[in-house]
Amino acid sequence: MSEETKPTAEILSTLEEHFPGAAQPAEYEGLVVAPDRLVDVAAFLRDEMGYAYLSCVTGVDYPEPTAQFPARFETVYHLFRSHGGPLTLHVHADRDEPSVPSLVSVWPSANVHERETWDLMGIRFEDHPDLRRILLWEGYEGHPLRKDFHEVYYEADHKPFSSRHPDGQPVQAEERAPLGRNLRYPPDWSEGGDLNPPEGWEPQAEVAIYDPLEERTGGNGRPMPTEQIVLNFGPQHPSTHGVLRMVARLDGETVQELEPVLGYLHRCHEKIGERNVWLANMPFTDRLDYICSMSNNFGYAVAAEKLMGVKPPERAEYIRVIMAELTRILNHMVVVGFFTNDIGVYLTGMLYGLEERELILDLFEMASGSRMMCNYFRFGGVARDLPEEFLPMAKELVYERLPRRVEEMDRFLFNEIFEVRGKGVSVLPAETAVAYGCTGPLLRASGVPYDVRRAEPYSVYDEFDWDVAVAYNGDVYDRFVVRFEEMRQSLRILRQALERLPDGPIQEGKSRHNVKMPEGEAYGRVEAPKGELGFYLVSDGGRNPYRYRVRSPSFTNLGVLGEMCRGHLVADVVAILASIDITLGEVDR
Amino acid sequence: MTAQNSRLPEVPPELQGNVRLMPWDKLYNWGRKRSLWPLFTGLACCAIEFIAGAASRFDMGRFGMDLARASPRQADLYIISGTVTKRMAPQVVRLYNQMAEPKYVIAMGACAISGGPFKEAYNVVSGVDKLIPVDVYVPGCPPRPEALYNAILALYAKMEREPISSMPWYQEGENEGIPVPCLGPDLVDWKLTEQTPLERSK
Amino acid sequence: MYGIGVLKTLSVTFGRFLMTYVDDARWFLKGGFGKRYSPEALPVRQSPGGRGVFTVQYPEEKLPLPENYRSFPFQVIDPETGKSPCTACGICAQACPPQCIWVVRATDPETGKSKREPAEFYIDVSVCMSCGFCAEFCPFDAIKMDHDYEIATYKRGDGEYLWGLERLSKPLAHHAAIHPTAYAAEQAEK
User: Fold this and answer.
1) Which pTM was predicted?
2) What is the pLDDT of residue C1?
3) Which terminal residue of chain B, N or C, has fewer Cβ atoms less than 10 Å from its own Cβ?
4) Is residue A415 part of a domain?
């Protein structure tokens, strides 16, 4: 805790000089900034103090006063420099009509995050260029993450529910709901009680998506009277990225404007997270980025251990690193395979990538019990020790098979066709990438060597000898150059880790299913294969989280999709989307 | 290919008895089941297991199913793999309507059966059978690819017992499809407006 | 020269294609036709050293499951008492993340006091996420994770997926067969 307060104290004194009275220390971490000075303070922090990267914007609902501050809606910003932990800014808004100035003019990465905060928490952002709902649809009643919003199948604020034991007669959730389904309408919805929509009611959801697209584009300036069409990609389409919908305005085949439409897999992870006990969120994190479940577990474990102040034993740390790096190789092989599927190779490359994935999944199944939803990490260690068959198979994979297959995949992908499809397509300059909050291979391909494992080392990554993969052109081609180099570096880390795996215990203390976290807040992040995966946890000292927020790399990286696709052809859009590498589970959460 | 080693569920009595399968039924059903083309789409995590099931380790091509079609007009089998959210519900129903008959639906995974671990969420439909009729359910979170194949074998067992003369899609009359829900203050499900528990209890 | 890259890529595909025949020939030399699909060949074909055809011909061939594999829970029936060691303590119901376990504690009909055993025990398998917390946190080794995944059904209603105590109970021998190391460790502790 003290390492975080020291730079904060420095920053507070600098801010006092330039903006007297604007900032004060927050309850646990960071600074509280007055809303009317927020934009100036933010610009100062970005330009003079080097905080070029806004990672996460979170809304928190405090209906009751806390120790130092009254009841409020709070917006929390996490800012980073090139090295070190976060600077946390808290901005208070009043309960009745919460409203905060928007920071999109300072950091464009705030765009999608502020839309989500408006959607789920109901905090309005003044001067936001386009404040619409992003995960739910226009016309939805209510702001779900508020504490007073009870979902249709609501039983109690916190689990475990008392109806399960000691007198647990099973009752299906549908039987408790008034309509027999997970549906609820406002009381003035229909007269006569037959649930027919009112006279003259039209659904607003689609109108809200198409109208801004029409407004934003100017004329195409061509002499011939041609028409621009609006095209929908998805949510069902043969590229294997899940239910993502993109709406594009095309002039012939060239994209003029493009916008991703999200929310088709919004499974209310954060609301369920507030109801669960702390450890029960671990299997739910598996389902965030469902291709790389071990990395998600890692992120949550790092954040929770920061809150608890617990450090796992060395063997557990090494096992965690082994699992995380195997996951990175698995993800990159699969991404390369899916990319070749998208540019037209149809299935061959995908099958090659999936074959390696199967062997790594065999290892995960041996250790944790499930191929995909591993649920392997616990607070203070890992769930169970590695079985005997694990190490020989892992060594054979890492020393022999995977290096050969990575080189083979390299030969498979890098040919003239890929150069034509990839070089110069969607060049993302370094400043734009940082301003939009991009992380992961997307950022490193633009020449910014920012890797969370180096910038804010966690676990035992600083004990290994490895390099950060970086490329300088920022196009689709370079993103895959970076991914292949990352696979080689992961193999390097794995060789060292497997060699030096120490013996010892795998869990610090006893793992309890209903642990109580001390009061406070923490932001823990890891370098997931897709970028920076962060967890913002607020605890009120109980067995359930007070606020549980996931900062997912794919959601933030999608904010720059529109910029990148402008001026490219329709076929390039598919290639660009594949090169960003998203998984809908963590985009929509 | 025979199914000696795997355990198939019991085909329920209403699908078994009282149908006489003529030789042309058997030939027709054998041909149909050996080339069942799934729709190339997936919703969430179960879709990755579906894709892994189609990949080289578990090879859907052995079942004639590797030709997954992206267009619903050309597909026979809709594998709902993943959570159906209220936002996605209109598209799921629309895809089902666009598929040409005979068509089958497999609800893969806990989320498609009943909403699964996300059942209590405000944006999740508690099971895809609230929207479209389902033929086979596969529990698991996610079910292994072998479990999906077990479900496909169960679907084969069901398909073998379908005589041409009494199947609904060969009867006269047009099938209008299921009314597509739309997005209002909550998902507006047209099935509810005809028969709600509130009305029935009055 | 333009085209060399494409030829290199094609060499990768063609090399893998040829390798499947070379591998089949190797198995043929070892034991004749069908040797490549015998139970001895399966673990070799599915290991990191395997080259050639990677397919597991389900349902004739099944991959052996590792011991830790988690499908759905089951209650272990002790052969001596005929019941499971479950005391209806409710820790599994508390630990379950989607809350799909319902436990009714038994009461003694004569005294009216509660007994340390379950009268009823239900798991809603259509909600279960196979996380294994119930098995991990049970203090009495009464509930363990099964390996059975062939449970597709045609219907959903009428409690098809609400498994009660009879459906969930399996003998201790089943637990010992599918979890040999864990069973040995439990026996060593006693």
Assistant:
1) 0.92
2) 65
3) C
4) yes
